Amino acid sequence: MGWWRARRRDLHLSDAILPEAALSIPCRAPTLAVVIPTYNEAENVPLIVERLRAVLTGIDWELIFVDDDSPDGTAQRVRAIARAHPQIRVLQRIGRRGLSSACIEGMLATSAPYVAVMDADLQHDETLLPTMLQQLRTEPLEIVIGSRYVAGGGVGDWDDQRASMSRLATRLGQRLIKADLKDPMSGFFMLRTELLQDDARELSGVGYKLLLDLFATHPGPLRFRELPYRFRPRHAGESKLDEAVVWEYLLMLIQKWVGPMLPVRFIAFSLIGASGVLVHMLVLWISFKLADTSFLVAQSVATLVAMTTNFFLNNLFTYRDRRLRGWDLLRGWFSFVIACSIGALANVGIASWLFEAHSFWVLSALAGILVGVVWNYAVTAVYTWKRPKAD
Ligand code: GDD
Ligand code: MN
After folding, report:
1. Where would I find the GtrA/DPMS transmembrane domain in this sequence (predicted)?
2. pTM attached to this predicted model
3. Which CATH number fits domain 32-258: 3.40.50.970, 1.10.10.10, 3.90.550.10, 3.40.50.300?
4. How far apart are CA 130 and CA 132, in angstroms?
5. 28-87 pLDDT, tens digit each
6. Residues enclosing ligand 1, CB less than 6 A?
Protein backbone atom coordinates (compact mmCIF):
# COMPACT_ATOMS: atom_id res chain seq x y z
CA MET A 1 0.00 0.00 0.00
CA GLY A 2 1.02 3.57 -0.65
CA TRP A 3 1.30 4.80 2.96
CA TRP A 4 3.24 1.73 3.98
CA ARG A 5 5.79 2.27 1.27
CA ALA A 6 6.08 5.88 2.31
CA ARG A 7 6.75 4.81 5.89
CA ARG A 8 9.39 2.35 4.70
CA ARG A 9 11.08 5.07 2.73
CA ASP A 10 11.17 7.27 5.81
CA LEU A 11 12.72 4.49 7.79
CA HIS A 12 15.38 3.98 5.18
CA LEU A 13 16.04 7.66 5.05
CA SER A 14 16.64 7.97 8.77
CA ASP A 15 18.63 4.76 8.80
CA ALA A 16 20.93 6.35 6.30
CA ILE A 17 21.28 9.59 8.22
CA LEU A 18 21.69 8.33 11.76
CA PRO A 19 25.17 6.76 11.72
CA GLU A 20 26.60 9.76 9.96
CA ALA A 21 24.98 12.14 12.40
CA ALA A 22 26.33 10.18 15.30
CA LEU A 23 29.79 10.57 13.85
CA SER A 24 29.54 14.31 13.30
CA ILE A 25 27.97 15.30 16.64
CA PRO A 26 30.66 15.77 19.23
CA CYS A 27 29.40 13.94 22.26
CA ARG A 28 31.34 15.44 25.15
CA ALA A 29 29.26 16.23 28.20
CA PRO A 30 29.91 19.75 29.44
CA THR A 31 31.78 20.29 32.70
CA LEU A 32 30.76 23.90 33.03
CA ALA A 33 27.58 25.67 32.02
CA VAL A 34 27.56 29.45 31.87
CA VAL A 35 24.09 30.92 32.29
CA ILE A 36 23.53 34.42 30.96
CA PRO A 37 20.24 36.17 31.68
CA THR A 38 19.34 38.69 29.00
CA TYR A 39 16.83 41.41 28.39
CA ASN A 40 17.55 43.59 25.36
CA GLU A 41 21.19 42.59 25.03
CA ALA A 42 21.28 41.72 21.30
CA GLU A 43 24.33 43.84 20.64
CA ASN A 44 26.29 42.26 23.47
CA VAL A 45 25.61 38.65 22.50
CA PRO A 46 28.35 38.11 19.87
CA LEU A 47 30.91 39.82 22.08
CA ILE A 48 30.26 37.86 25.24
CA VAL A 49 30.26 34.61 23.24
CA GLU A 50 33.61 35.49 21.74
CA ARG A 51 35.10 36.45 25.11
CA LEU A 52 33.89 33.23 26.73
CA ARG A 53 35.14 31.08 23.87
CA ALA A 54 38.56 32.67 24.21
CA VAL A 55 38.79 32.24 27.94
CA LEU A 56 37.31 28.75 28.29
CA THR A 57 39.75 26.85 26.09
CA GLY A 58 40.50 23.42 27.48
CA ILE A 59 37.18 23.25 29.35
CA ASP A 60 34.07 21.45 28.06
CA TRP A 61 31.55 24.21 28.37
CA GLU A 62 28.05 25.10 27.31
CA LEU A 63 26.40 28.46 27.22
CA ILE A 64 22.75 29.00 28.10
CA PHE A 65 21.14 32.35 27.45
CA VAL A 66 17.86 32.89 29.25
CA ASP A 67 15.98 35.61 27.44
CA ASP A 68 12.64 37.09 28.46
CA ASP A 69 11.41 37.61 24.93
CA SER A 70 13.42 40.81 24.48
CA PRO A 71 11.86 43.13 21.90
CA ASP A 72 15.32 43.79 20.41
CA GLY A 73 15.56 40.19 19.16
CA THR A 74 18.24 38.95 21.56
CA ALA A 75 16.95 35.36 21.32
CA GLN A 76 17.20 35.35 17.52
CA ARG A 77 20.70 36.70 17.77
CA VAL A 78 21.69 33.82 20.03
CA ARG A 79 20.06 31.27 17.71
CA ALA A 80 21.95 32.65 14.74
CA ILE A 81 25.21 31.89 16.54
CA ALA A 82 23.93 28.62 18.02
CA ARG A 83 23.32 27.20 14.53
CA ALA A 84 27.04 26.82 14.12
CA HIS A 85 27.79 26.12 17.79
CA PRO A 86 25.61 23.45 19.38
CA GLN A 87 27.06 24.13 22.84
CA ILE A 88 25.20 27.46 22.80
CA ARG A 89 21.44 27.77 23.19
CA VAL A 90 18.70 30.07 24.28
CA LEU A 91 15.86 29.45 26.65
CA GLN A 92 13.24 31.97 25.61
CA ARG A 93 10.57 32.76 28.17
CA ILE A 94 7.33 34.31 26.97
CA GLY A 95 5.28 36.67 29.13
CA ARG A 96 7.77 36.49 32.01
CA ARG A 97 10.30 38.89 33.51
CA GLY A 98 12.85 38.56 36.25
CA LEU A 99 16.59 38.24 36.59
CA SER A 100 16.67 35.72 39.46
CA SER A 101 14.08 33.36 38.05
CA ALA A 102 15.81 33.49 34.66
CA CYS A 103 19.10 32.43 36.26
CA ILE A 104 17.45 29.65 38.25
CA GLU A 105 15.70 28.20 35.21
CA GLY A 106 18.88 28.41 33.16
CA MET A 107 20.86 26.62 35.87
CA LEU A 108 18.23 23.89 36.08
CA ALA A 109 18.52 23.33 32.34
CA THR A 110 22.05 21.94 32.43
CA SER A 111 23.52 18.56 33.23
CA ALA A 112 26.97 20.04 33.81
CA PRO A 113 28.27 19.56 37.37
CA TYR A 114 29.38 23.20 37.63
CA VAL A 115 27.38 26.22 36.66
CA ALA A 116 28.20 29.92 36.54
CA VAL A 117 25.96 32.97 36.24
CA MET A 118 27.11 36.19 34.64
CA ASP A 119 25.68 39.30 32.99
CA ALA A 120 25.60 39.74 29.22
CA ASP A 121 26.85 43.32 29.21
CA LEU A 122 30.55 42.52 29.80
CA GLN A 123 30.54 44.14 33.26
CA HIS A 124 31.72 40.89 34.85
CA ASP A 125 35.30 39.76 34.37
CA GLU A 126 35.08 36.49 32.44
CA THR A 127 38.80 35.79 32.92
CA LEU A 128 37.90 34.74 36.47
CA LEU A 129 35.93 31.72 35.25
CA PRO A 130 38.78 29.19 34.85
CA THR A 131 40.07 30.01 38.36
CA MET A 132 36.58 29.69 39.81
CA LEU A 133 36.19 26.28 38.21
CA GLN A 134 39.63 25.16 39.30
CA GLN A 135 38.93 26.09 42.92
CA LEU A 136 35.53 24.42 42.97
CA ARG A 137 37.04 21.23 41.56
CA THR A 138 40.03 21.02 43.83
CA GLU A 139 38.90 22.56 47.10
CA PRO A 140 36.06 21.85 49.51
CA LEU A 141 34.03 24.81 48.27
CA GLU A 142 30.42 24.95 47.17
CA ILE A 143 30.36 28.39 45.61
CA VAL A 144 32.93 30.88 44.33
CA ILE A 145 31.86 34.49 43.96
CA GLY A 146 33.19 37.34 41.87
CA SER A 147 33.43 40.16 44.39
CA ARG A 148 33.75 43.90 44.01
CA TYR A 149 34.30 44.49 47.70
CA VAL A 150 37.33 42.37 48.58
CA ALA A 151 40.88 43.69 48.24
CA GLY A 152 41.73 44.02 44.57
CA GLY A 153 38.13 44.41 43.46
CA GLY A 154 36.21 47.55 42.63
CA VAL A 155 33.09 49.08 41.19
CA GLY A 156 34.81 51.08 38.43
CA ASP A 157 33.38 54.40 37.37
CA TRP A 158 30.07 54.40 39.19
CA ASP A 159 28.66 57.77 40.15
CA ASP A 160 28.42 58.53 43.86
CA GLN A 161 24.72 57.82 44.02
CA ARG A 162 24.94 54.36 42.48
CA ALA A 163 27.99 53.54 44.59
CA SER A 164 26.36 54.53 47.88
CA MET A 165 23.11 52.81 46.93
CA SER A 166 25.02 49.62 46.25
CA ARG A 167 26.90 49.92 49.54
CA LEU A 168 23.65 50.39 51.44
CA ALA A 169 22.02 47.40 49.71
CA THR A 170 25.14 45.38 50.50
CA ARG A 171 25.15 46.28 54.19
CA LEU A 172 21.46 45.54 54.57
CA GLY A 173 21.92 42.25 52.73
CA GLN A 174 24.79 41.25 54.99
CA ARG A 175 22.48 41.49 57.99
CA LEU A 176 20.18 38.93 56.45
CA ILE A 177 22.68 36.13 56.16
CA LYS A 178 25.04 34.63 58.64
CA ALA A 179 28.01 34.37 56.29
CA ASP A 180 30.60 37.13 56.14
CA LEU A 181 30.03 37.87 52.46
CA LYS A 182 31.61 41.09 51.26
CA ASP A 183 29.52 41.27 48.07
CA PRO A 184 26.18 39.55 48.68
CA MET A 185 24.62 41.50 45.78
CA SER A 186 27.07 40.09 43.25
CA GLY A 187 25.49 38.76 40.09
CA PHE A 188 28.63 36.81 39.14
CA PHE A 189 29.35 33.41 40.71
CA MET A 190 29.92 29.72 40.06
CA LEU A 191 28.62 26.81 42.09
CA ARG A 192 28.16 23.07 42.20
CA THR A 193 24.99 22.46 40.21
CA GLU A 194 23.79 19.96 42.83
CA LEU A 195 23.53 22.75 45.36
CA LEU A 196 21.11 24.63 43.19
CA GLN A 197 19.09 21.54 42.36
CA ASP A 198 18.72 20.82 46.09
CA ASP A 199 17.63 24.33 47.07
CA ALA A 200 15.74 25.45 43.95
CA ARG A 201 12.27 24.91 45.39
CA GLU A 202 12.97 27.09 48.41
CA LEU A 203 14.41 30.08 46.52
CA SER A 204 12.21 33.15 46.24
CA GLY A 205 13.28 33.81 42.63
CA VAL A 206 12.22 37.44 42.87
CA GLY A 207 14.29 40.47 41.91
CA TYR A 208 18.07 40.77 41.64
CA LYS A 209 19.16 39.12 44.87
CA LEU A 210 19.81 35.54 43.80
CA LEU A 211 23.10 35.12 45.64
CA LEU A 212 21.61 36.43 48.86
CA ASP A 213 18.72 34.09 48.34
CA LEU A 214 21.05 31.11 47.90
CA PHE A 215 22.82 31.90 51.16
CA ALA A 216 19.64 32.64 53.09
CA THR A 217 17.89 29.50 51.84
CA HIS A 218 20.61 26.90 52.22
CA PRO A 219 20.22 24.84 55.38
CA GLY A 220 23.50 25.46 57.19
CA PRO A 221 26.46 27.57 56.12
CA LEU A 222 27.82 27.47 52.57
CA ARG A 223 31.50 26.97 51.95
CA PHE A 224 32.35 29.93 49.77
CA ARG A 225 35.21 32.05 48.51
CA GLU A 226 35.19 35.53 47.06
CA LEU A 227 37.57 36.41 44.24
CA PRO A 228 38.19 40.07 43.49
CA TYR A 229 37.38 41.65 40.14
CA ARG A 230 36.75 45.13 38.85
CA PHE A 231 33.21 45.81 37.69
CA ARG A 232 33.50 47.20 34.16
CA PRO A 233 31.32 49.78 32.46
CA ARG A 234 28.40 48.29 30.54
CA HIS A 235 29.21 47.61 26.90
CA ALA A 236 26.02 48.28 24.86
CA GLY A 237 22.41 48.85 25.92
CA GLU A 238 21.24 50.00 29.32
CA SER A 239 20.78 48.73 32.88
CA LYS A 240 17.45 47.25 33.89
CA LEU A 241 18.05 47.86 37.57
CA ASP A 242 15.43 50.53 38.17
CA GLU A 243 13.72 51.92 41.23
CA ALA A 244 11.12 49.15 41.16
CA VAL A 245 13.92 46.62 41.72
CA VAL A 246 15.31 48.68 44.59
CA TRP A 247 11.88 49.07 46.14
CA GLU A 248 11.21 45.36 45.86
CA TYR A 249 14.49 44.71 47.65
CA LEU A 250 13.58 47.09 50.48
CA LEU A 251 10.16 45.48 50.86
CA MET A 252 11.83 42.08 51.07
CA LEU A 253 14.18 43.31 53.83
CA ILE A 254 11.35 44.88 55.83
CA GLN A 255 9.31 41.72 55.36
CA LYS A 256 12.13 39.62 56.85
CA TRP A 257 12.29 42.06 59.71
CA VAL A 258 8.56 42.17 60.56
CA GLY A 259 8.09 38.46 59.99
CA PRO A 260 6.02 36.51 57.54
CA MET A 261 2.68 36.95 59.38
CA LEU A 262 2.16 40.62 58.54
CA PRO A 263 2.50 41.55 54.87
CA VAL A 264 4.75 44.60 54.67
CA ARG A 265 2.34 46.26 52.25
CA PHE A 266 -0.39 45.96 54.86
CA ILE A 267 1.74 47.87 57.35
CA ALA A 268 2.43 50.63 54.84
CA PHE A 269 -1.26 50.70 53.90
CA SER A 270 -2.33 51.05 57.55
CA LEU A 271 0.19 53.80 58.29
CA ILE A 272 -1.00 55.75 55.29
CA GLY A 273 -4.57 55.11 56.43
CA ALA A 274 -3.71 56.66 59.80
CA SER A 275 -2.23 59.69 58.07
CA GLY A 276 -5.58 59.99 56.27
CA VAL A 277 -7.25 60.75 59.60
CA LEU A 278 -5.04 63.82 59.99
CA VAL A 279 -5.83 64.96 56.45
CA HIS A 280 -9.51 64.42 57.14
CA MET A 281 -9.47 66.50 60.31
CA LEU A 282 -7.54 69.29 58.64
CA VAL A 283 -9.94 69.56 55.71
CA LEU A 284 -12.94 69.27 58.01
CA TRP A 285 -11.63 72.08 60.17
CA ILE A 286 -10.92 74.32 57.19
CA SER A 287 -14.30 73.88 55.52
CA PHE A 288 -16.49 73.62 58.63
CA LYS A 289 -14.86 76.23 60.83
CA LEU A 290 -13.22 78.60 58.37
CA ALA A 291 -15.33 78.33 55.20
CA ASP A 292 -18.51 77.90 57.20
CA THR A 293 -20.04 75.03 55.17
CA SER A 294 -22.59 72.68 56.74
CA PHE A 295 -21.14 69.78 58.74
CA LEU A 296 -22.53 67.21 56.32
CA VAL A 297 -20.88 68.84 53.31
CA ALA A 298 -17.63 69.46 55.19
CA GLN A 299 -17.49 65.87 56.43
CA SER A 300 -18.16 64.53 52.91
CA VAL A 301 -15.50 66.74 51.33
CA ALA A 302 -13.01 65.76 54.04
CA THR A 303 -13.73 62.07 53.46
CA LEU A 304 -13.16 62.34 49.72
CA VAL A 305 -9.98 64.37 50.10
CA ALA A 306 -8.58 61.91 52.66
CA MET A 307 -9.39 58.97 50.39
CA THR A 308 -7.70 60.74 47.52
CA THR A 309 -4.50 61.52 49.42
CA ASN A 310 -4.48 57.94 50.71
CA PHE A 311 -4.82 56.66 47.18
CA PHE A 312 -1.91 58.72 45.89
CA LEU A 313 0.33 57.93 48.86
CA ASN A 314 -0.34 54.20 48.47
CA ASN A 315 0.30 54.47 44.77
CA LEU A 316 3.59 56.22 45.48
CA PHE A 317 4.85 54.03 48.34
CA THR A 318 2.91 50.86 49.10
CA TYR A 319 2.58 49.88 45.45
CA ARG A 320 5.57 51.69 44.04
CA ASP A 321 6.50 48.66 41.94
CA ARG A 322 3.00 48.52 40.43
CA ARG A 323 2.51 52.24 40.20
CA LEU A 324 -0.52 53.35 38.17
CA ARG A 325 -0.04 56.11 35.63
CA GLY A 326 -2.12 58.00 33.07
CA TRP A 327 -5.67 56.77 32.62
CA ASP A 328 -5.03 53.83 34.95
CA LEU A 329 -4.66 56.40 37.69
CA LEU A 330 -8.25 57.54 37.21
CA ARG A 331 -9.57 53.99 37.10
CA GLY A 332 -7.50 53.13 40.16
CA TRP A 333 -8.70 56.16 42.11
CA PHE A 334 -12.30 55.30 41.28
CA SER A 335 -11.99 51.69 42.41
CA PHE A 336 -10.14 52.82 45.54
CA VAL A 337 -12.91 55.24 46.50
CA ILE A 338 -15.62 52.61 45.89
CA ALA A 339 -13.73 49.97 47.88
CA CYS A 340 -13.03 52.30 50.78
CA SER A 341 -16.64 53.52 50.87
CA ILE A 342 -17.82 49.95 51.28
CA GLY A 343 -15.08 49.51 53.87
CA ALA A 344 -16.40 52.53 55.76
CA LEU A 345 -19.93 51.10 55.74
CA ALA A 346 -18.62 47.78 57.06
CA ASN A 347 -16.63 49.65 59.69
CA VAL A 348 -19.63 51.63 60.93
CA GLY A 349 -21.94 48.61 60.70
CA ILE A 350 -19.74 46.33 62.75
CA ALA A 351 -18.81 49.00 65.29
CA SER A 352 -22.42 49.91 65.98
CA TRP A 353 -23.49 46.27 66.09
CA LEU A 354 -20.82 45.56 68.73
CA PHE A 355 -21.74 48.71 70.61
CA GLU A 356 -25.44 47.70 70.65
CA ALA A 357 -24.35 44.38 72.10
CA HIS A 358 -23.08 46.34 75.16
CA SER A 359 -19.44 46.40 74.17
CA PHE A 360 -17.14 49.09 75.39
CA TRP A 361 -17.31 51.97 72.86
CA VAL A 362 -13.52 52.19 72.27
CA LEU A 363 -13.28 48.48 71.52
CA SER A 364 -16.32 48.65 69.24
CA ALA A 365 -14.73 51.48 67.29
CA LEU A 366 -11.35 49.73 67.03
CA ALA A 367 -12.94 46.50 65.84
CA GLY A 368 -14.86 48.43 63.19
CA ILE A 369 -11.70 50.19 62.05
CA LEU A 370 -9.78 46.92 61.89
CA VAL A 371 -12.42 45.29 59.71
CA GLY A 372 -12.53 48.39 57.50
CA VAL A 373 -8.75 48.50 57.04
CA VAL A 374 -8.45 44.79 56.28
CA TRP A 375 -11.30 45.03 53.80
CA ASN A 376 -9.83 48.11 52.09
CA TYR A 377 -6.41 46.52 51.91
CA ALA A 378 -7.63 43.20 50.56
CA VAL A 379 -9.98 44.64 47.97
CA THR A 380 -7.68 47.36 46.64
CA ALA A 381 -4.78 44.88 46.45
CA VAL A 382 -6.86 42.86 44.01
CA TYR A 383 -8.82 45.52 42.11
CA THR A 384 -6.85 48.75 42.31
CA TRP A 385 -3.25 47.52 42.16
CA LYS A 386 -3.55 44.31 40.24
CA ARG A 387 -0.35 42.35 39.82
CA PRO A 388 0.82 43.44 36.39
CA LYS A 389 1.34 41.00 33.56
CA ALA A 390 4.99 40.83 32.48
CA ASP A 391 5.73 43.62 30.03
N1 GDD B 1 16.08 37.20 31.47
C2 GDD B 1 16.17 38.38 32.08
N3 GDD B 1 15.02 38.94 32.60
N4 GDD B 1 17.35 39.02 32.18
C5 GDD B 1 17.40 40.21 32.82
C6 GDD B 1 16.26 40.83 33.37
C7 GDD B 1 15.01 40.15 33.23
O8 GDD B 1 13.97 40.61 33.69
N9 GDD B 1 16.65 42.01 33.92
C10 GDD B 1 17.97 42.12 33.71
N11 GDD B 1 18.43 41.04 33.03
C12 GDD B 1 19.81 40.74 32.61
C13 GDD B 1 20.45 41.86 31.80
O14 GDD B 1 20.16 41.76 30.42
C15 GDD B 1 21.92 41.64 32.11
O16 GDD B 1 22.49 40.67 31.30
C17 GDD B 1 21.89 41.14 33.55
O18 GDD B 1 20.59 40.59 33.76
C19 GDD B 1 22.17 42.24 34.59
O20 GDD B 1 21.26 43.28 34.41
P21 GDD B 1 21.71 44.82 34.41
O22 GDD B 1 20.48 45.62 34.11
O23 GDD B 1 22.91 45.02 33.57
O24 GDD B 1 22.06 44.98 35.96
P25 GDD B 1 23.11 45.96 36.61
O26 GDD B 1 24.40 45.98 35.85
O27 GDD B 1 22.48 47.27 36.85
O28 GDD B 1 23.31 45.20 38.01
C29 GDD B 1 24.44 44.41 38.29
O30 GDD B 1 24.87 44.70 39.57
C31 GDD B 1 23.99 44.30 40.60
C32 GDD B 1 24.53 44.68 41.94
O33 GDD B 1 25.00 45.98 41.96
C34 GDD B 1 24.13 42.93 38.13
O35 GDD B 1 25.36 42.20 38.14
C36 GDD B 1 23.26 42.38 39.22
O37 GDD B 1 23.23 40.95 39.12
C38 GDD B 1 23.81 42.81 40.56
O39 GDD B 1 22.92 42.40 41.58
MN1 MN C 1 24.85 45.45 33.98
Report:
1. 269-385
2. 0.79
3. 3.90.550.10
4. 5
5. 789 999 999 999 999 999 999 999 999 999 999 999 999 999 999 999 999 999 999 999
6. 37-39, 41, 66-68, 97-99, 102, 119-121, 123, 166, 185, 187, 208, 239-241
